Recover the amino acids of this structure.
């Protein structure tokens, strides 16, 4: 079976034209709505126009990441719908080309979008962190104390702190974990009864603790210390009072390490972060599944033309977004295992799409 014959290129070109317009148009619409709603807030923070504009440029990756499944759906419905209305599908079938073969370029296009979505998902956390910094979303707390919290530091280091006092620059009971990848870069776990911030050295001095070095799963080494200068723990006490990174500001591996730390500390929020992690894979895969769902659905858009296609696409998009929110709620609340909950929308759309595709006349 030859791919990318002139008919394949024609179908794929129609798909990409609609996809590009939707993938760019949806984020711009969301940005305009958000800017209209929050402009007064940003101006009250004395943010310059350039800062506001730059913050929305950094927001484009996240808004586009969430819009990609909807963009694939619109591109699938409208490209196949146009072929149906113009009797091009009928002509293709008369020439011995089945509906499944005709739509194969669209599925390949959707698979390409899924890969791009996976890459974009790793860019989103970096862009979100820069945006929040520009918009001053993370204001320092007015309190001098913070208790029982987890902090994601630099170089993949995760700190679990029992008590922090900013006024004294002191920590009561600290555990630090840095995940390694082998003997050359071993996993390191440090526990200490306390720590004190050094204003001159600009790092923390740990006291009365142990350092566990784990080169492999079967070997480990423990070192007892009375005091230890941690030159990598450079976050000042006031910085530790800032709101911690959200899941949207962590890349996939960083989120995995953070979840491990939450599990060891017994945090009740671990399921919510597990759902967010699973969605990093599930949403890109949705781009392919939504095309399988939309292809047979698109053959019915000839009944009402473009308006019907818009209605169907918007309706399915709203249902998909509602399922994502439901996924976060039931997975984060422990009603279902996080991975099961995260993949539930894909399962629903995938089974429905396979059923509709099997019933489509070829």
């Amino acid at each position: 079976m030859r791919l990318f014959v002139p008919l394949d290129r024609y179908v794929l070109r129609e798909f990409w034209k609609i996809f590009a317009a939707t993938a760019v148009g949806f984020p711009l619409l969301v940005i305009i709505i958000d800017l209209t709603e929050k402009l007064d807030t940003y101006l009250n923070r004395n943010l310059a126009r350039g800062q506001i504009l730059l913050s929305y440029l950094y927001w484009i990756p996240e808004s586009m990441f969430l819009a990609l499944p909807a963009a694939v759906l619109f591109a699938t419905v409208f490209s196949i719908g146009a072929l149906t209305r113009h009797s091009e599908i009928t002509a293709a079938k008369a020439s011995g080309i089945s509906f499944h073969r005709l739509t194969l370029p669209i599925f390949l296009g959707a698979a390409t979008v899924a890969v791009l979505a996976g890459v974009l998902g790793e860019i989103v956390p970096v862009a979100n962190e820069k945006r929040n910094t520009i918009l001053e979303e993370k204001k320092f707390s007015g309190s001098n104390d913070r208790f029982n919290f987890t902090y994601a530091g630099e170089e993949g280091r995760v700190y679990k702190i029992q008590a922090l006092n900013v006024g004294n620059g002191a920590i009561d009971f600290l555990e630090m974990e840095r995940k390694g990848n082998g003997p050359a870069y071993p996993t390191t776990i440090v526990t200490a009864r306390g720590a004190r911030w050094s204003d001159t050295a600009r790092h923390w001095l740990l006291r009365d603790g142990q350092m566990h070095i784990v080169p492999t799963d079967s070997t480990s080494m423990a070192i007892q210390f009375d005091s230890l200068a941690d030159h990598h723990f450079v976050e000042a006490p006031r910085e530790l009072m800032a709101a911690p990174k959200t899941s949207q500001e962590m890349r996939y591996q960083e989120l995995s390490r953070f979840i491990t730390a939450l599990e060891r500390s017994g945090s009740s929020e671990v399921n919510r972060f597990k759902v967010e992690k699973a969605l990093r894979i599930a949403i890109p895969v949705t781009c392919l599944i939504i095309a399988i769902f939309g292809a047979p659905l698109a053959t019915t858009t000839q009944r009402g033309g473009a308006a019907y296609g818009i209605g169907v696409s918007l309706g399915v998009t709203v249902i998909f977004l509602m399922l994502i929110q439901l996924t976060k709620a039931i997975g984060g609340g422990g009603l279902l295992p996080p991975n099961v909950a995260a993949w539930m929308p894909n399962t629903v759309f995938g089974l429905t799409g396979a059923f509709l595709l099997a019933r489509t006349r070829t």
Remarks:
- Residues 3 and 105 are 8 Å apart (CA to CA).
